[in-house]
Amino acid sequence: EVLALLVLMFPLLRGLALHLHSAVTGSYIPGTHSIAFVTCLNEQIAKDIARAIMDKKLAAYVNILPKSSALYFWKGELEESTEILLLVKTRTSKIGELSNYVRSIHPFEIPEIISLPIDQGNPLYLKWIEENVPRD
C-alpha cells in the first residue's frame, strides 16, 4: 500500500524536486516552455488570432510568418493553398488552454494547432517567457 502511494506520488514529487532544483540553481527544466504552431488562412486572420492570444496572456510572443504554400488532404482530396503561420511562445502548461481558445475563435473546421517543447535556449529569454505568461 505504501509502495503504491509512493509510485502514484513519484511524478508529483519529481516535479517538485525539479522545480526546487531549478529555483536554487537557476537552471532551465527542458520542456517547461513550448512553441505552438497555428496556421491561418490569411494575414488578417493571423493578426486577429495573435492579438487575441496576447490579450488573454496565453503567450509571451507570437511571430507571424509570411505566406507559404501548403499541400494537404481534406475530405479525401489533395488540396493546395497558401497560409500564414503563427509561432506562439508560451508555457507548456498553457498549451491545452491555448489550443481550446484558438479552436473557439479560428474559422477553420479543424485548425492546425500543434506544439513542441523547448529543450534549451537563451536562459534570459526563457525566463522572460515565464515572467510574461501567468502561471495556471
What does this 3D model show about the protein?
There is one protein chain. This protein is α+β, with helices and mostly antiparallel strands and 136 residues long. It folds into 2 domains: 1-28; 31-132, 2-Layer Sandwich (Alpha-Beta Plaits). 43% of the residues lie in helices and 31% in strands. It contains 4 helices and 4 strands. The protein has helices at residues 2-25, 43-55, 95-105, 123-132; strands spanning 33-40, 61-74, 77-91, 113-117. It has a 4-stranded antiparallel sheet. The longest helix is centred in the N-terminal third of the chain and has 24 residues, at 2-25. The two termini are 32 Å apart. The relative contact order is 0.22. The mean pLDDT is 89.
Gist?
The chain is α+β, with helices and mostly antiparallel strands and 136 residues long.
